[in-house]
Structure formats: C-alpha cells, structure tokens
Amino acid sequence: MAILHSYPFCPHSRFARLILAETGLATELVEEKPWERRIPFLEMNPAGTLPVLVDDSGLAVPGARGIAGYLDDVQGEGLNGRRLLPQNIAQRVEVRRLLDWFLGKFHEEVSDYLATEKIYKRFMPAELGGGPPDMGAIRAARTNVRYHLKYIGFLIAQRNWLAGDQMTYADLAAAAHLSVVDYLGDVPWDENETAKEWYARVKSRPSFRALLADRVPGMAPAEHYGNLDF
Prior knowledge:
Keywords: Transferase. The chain contains eight helices and four strands, in the order βαβαββαααααα. It has helices at residues 11-23, 39-44, 64-75, 89-123, 135-158, 169-183, 193-203, 209-213; strands spanning 2-6, 27-31, 52-54, 60-62.
C-alpha cells in the first residue's frame, strides 16, 4: 500500500489526501511534523516539505504538484470521466494555472500564514519558532483572503467548476487550502454567496469527510466547519 507522509492541517497535505481519495488509490497516512525535520524524512525529500507519497515500489514523490502529476501519469487514462487533469491542452493549461494560484499565491498570502501562526506555533518548541502568533501576519491573511474569495466567485459565476465544466485538481487545491482557513473561522463566506455555494459542493463529496473529521488538539473548529449546508 502507498504511504502518504503528511500533516493534518498542512494545506498541501490536504490537497494530496483529497486527490488520492478521489482517484481511489489506497493510502496509509503517516503524520509528519514538518518543523521536526527528521533525518529519515529528509532522506526522502531533502527540501523537508510536505506532502510526500511513497508508492508500492518505494518511489518517493514529493510535493502536492508532484503527486498530482504522478497520479495523472499512472492513473489518468483509466479514470475516464473522473480524470482530474483534462485531456484537452487548453484545459490542462488552465488547471495548471489555477494550481499555481492556489498552491502558490493563496498559500503564500493566506493559508501558510494562518496555519503557521494559529496551529503550527502552538506545537513547535520555542527554539524552532514556536510561541505566540504574529497578529500582523494574521491580519494580513484575513485581508488577503477576501480578494481570493472574490476571484473564486468570479470564476464560478462563469463556469460550473473553477477550471471549466468538470471538477479538476484546481477545485480540490482551492478547497483544501480554504478548509484550513475555514476551520479557523477566517473565511468571510457572507461576502460571496457564489464562492460559498461552490465550496459547499466540494466539501459535500465523500473525499472530504476525513478532512472534516480532523481536529486540532485544544482548538475546536468554527461552528459551521462540518456542516455540509453551512
């Protein structure tokens, strides 16, 4: 069985968990605390970043984008209508553009700040950067999430899903990162009903159930977090 080294509230790890569940690849989850930088983990991925998928042959596939590409390479043609990276070249370009947006821009401007300041630092020792959250970083993330939410609403107002007519990696990447922010109660859903309805569609999928069951010790989720209808 494949093994996914991940952390429950790492947004990139959540994306990997979603796409593995959607494609039906049986996977064992191994929790990896990224700040510990364990030597055995660094031997698999010298960058020390999550997630890392180790397949049945022992091949280590690092990174959310790498895992998405790997799954399409090994399973894409057999998934037929469930393929998460379309065959059409223009559509593939659009999916990859949006992956860059959510795995890169959204992460750097929103989800990384909030996950680090509100969750990671609670469990990190002081010598590794643990301690009180940086409220300036949190305020910046709360400001930034608003225009990202507007952009999601803009896309969904024109399309059935973020990249087109079918759900793709783009939807799962966006929803994975938003799910961490939503757990913390920092998504202003009342500002964009279109984006809210799209997110409800994604989080109602069976692949999302495990994410909605995750809990940060000592920190309850926002009241609506597990409510599929908000």
